[in-house]
Known about the structure:
Blueprint lengths: L1 H19 L5 H14 L1 H15 L7
Helix pairs in contact: 1-2
Amino acid sequence: MVCNYFWMFCEGLYLHTLLVVAFVSENKILKWFYMVGWGVPIPMTVIYALLRRQSTDPKDTH
């Protein structure tokens, strides 16, 4: 879910960059968008998965 929000943020920021800052190199800015879109959610997802794994009861079948 976090990744979806970061990608929506990146898409909005990309559109903003196209409209307002027309003279920025597109290749350079796309690299930053990929890093934000994929790089930021990864640590959050790993932390969530580890916490979820620790908090589940192995005897619980539901």
